[in-house]
Amino acid sequence: MNERYVGMAPFHAHGDLSGFVISGRWPETTREWAQLLTLAVRIASVPGLLATSTVFGAREELPDDPQPGTVGLIIAEGPVLGERALTPGRFAGHQPPALLMLHPPAETVPSLPECAGAASGCVLLPGLPHLGLDHRAAWVEAEADGTVTSMVSRVGIDPISDPDTAVLAMLLAA
Length: 174
What we know:
The chain is built from two helices and eight strands. It has an eight-stranded antiparallel sheet with strand order 1-2-4-3-5-6-7-8, sandwiched between helices. The protein has one domain (24-172). The chain is of the alpha+beta class.
C-alpha cells in the first residue's frame, strides 16, 4: 500500500457542489475509492449543497494555479434527470477512471427509516471484462452528522444489476 495520502477538498460555485480537488495521489484500490466516496457523500448530505442527483467524473487534469501535490479533479458533469441531464455515451470518447453519482438527502431513499435525511452515492470503476479486468463499484449512505449508515463495495459487478451503476455504465457506452 502506498504510504502517500489521498487528499480531497470540495469546491463549489454559486453555492452548488462543483467537484473535488484530489491531492497526494489517486485512490489505487476499490477500498480507497469507497473511502473517497464516503467523504463525498458526507459532503453531499450538507443541506442545500447538492440540488439534485449529479454525476461527477474523475479527470487527471489540474486546476488553474494548482497547489503542490494536486493530482487531478473530480468534476460535476451534470444532473441525472431534467433538461440539462447527461446523455448516453457522454464519456464514450474519453472514459474517465471513475464516475461518481451523488444523491442529496431529498433524493435518497434511506436504508433504515431512522436515517431520514441521509445522502447517498455510488462510484463505478469501469473495467474491461473481455480482458479480465472486472468492473468495480461501491455504494455509500451517510447522514448530515457524518454517520455512515451503509457502505458496500464489490468487484466483478454487472453494471445493469443496480440503477446507479446502470446509469453510469450507460453514460460510458458508445
